[in-house]
Amino acid sequence: MATVQVSEAEKVYILHGIRDDLRVDGRGCEDYRHMEVETDVVSNTDGSAKVTLGHTAVLVGVKAEIGKPKPMIPNEGHLEFFVDCSANATPEFEGRGGEELGTELSNTLYKVFNNQHSLDLRSLCISPGEHCWVLYVDVL
Question: Most Cβ neighbours (<10 Å): which of 16, 31, 32, 73?
Answer without folding.
Answer: 73
